[in-house]
Amino acid sequence: MVVKEIQEFSEIRTRARAYLCYILSRNIPNYLPDPQLEMIVAGLKKIKKEIENFEALYILDAKGVQIIEAISKNPEYRKGKGINRSMRAYYYRAVREKRCILTDPYPSLLTNDLTVTAAYPIYDDKKKLHYVVCIDISLKDILKIAHPTSIDSLFGAFSKAAYAAFSVALLSVAFLLFFNGIQSLAIHGFAIAKLDIKEMFESTILLTLSLAIFDLVKTIFEEEVLGHRKRKESSDIHKTMIRFLGSIIIALSIEALMLVFKFALIGPEKIIYAVYLVGAVTMLLIGLSFYLKSTEGLRGEGD
Question: 139-146 and 2-27 helices cross at what angle (nearest 10)?
Fold first, then answer.
């Protein structure tokens, strides 16, 4: 999932940059008395053996023109000499910041897939720019390097399948509750003279629970299956939990009210059970209030 991979990249970006810049600096010093192209190419060949998956290694001159054919394990990518890349973000960022940089994901001209580029400027002893060394790595591969278990793992695939199955099952329950609630209203009609308060309460409970479960399914499917995580992720989870608990409390409150009316008419000695249920609803309200208070700071950060 592209959205999920970009989100994961933002989380591991610092580690990915540190790793790539370390590989570059270990094999190619960026301050040399007289930078020689042959020495830099030799360093790139060493890097080629160290990094298992990459798209291309290449060198730009001080003006941003590629001066060698790209080094790659894929023969189709061994090209590009003479292309002016001075308008590419990795070139002007490396020149402007005068240090090794890592770009945001962008569509690769070689593969058309999302790629990141590490760019490493090389200066002489008078701090004059001579070359910019670049490494192109696909977004998926950089995630594997910096966070090996984040994507395409067996457990990750199993988790997605499991969450999808649970989502379908819960969605079926939500629809069953919804249809039963609608059916109950349809059977008894909407004639005011024939209104049955008990049936109305039961229909309301079914519809309320259906809405709560549907909202929970929506959150689980979007976040765990589709991977639509946002920067306000924790805030969204808190809102979902609040809505779910609120729906349950409403349903139990309606049930308690119905029992009070029922036992008041046909069995006053059993009204204590309705009181117990009212007490349980009160405890849930207190728990929800405590939850809201304890997560107030987290929700504030997400807003």
Answer: 70
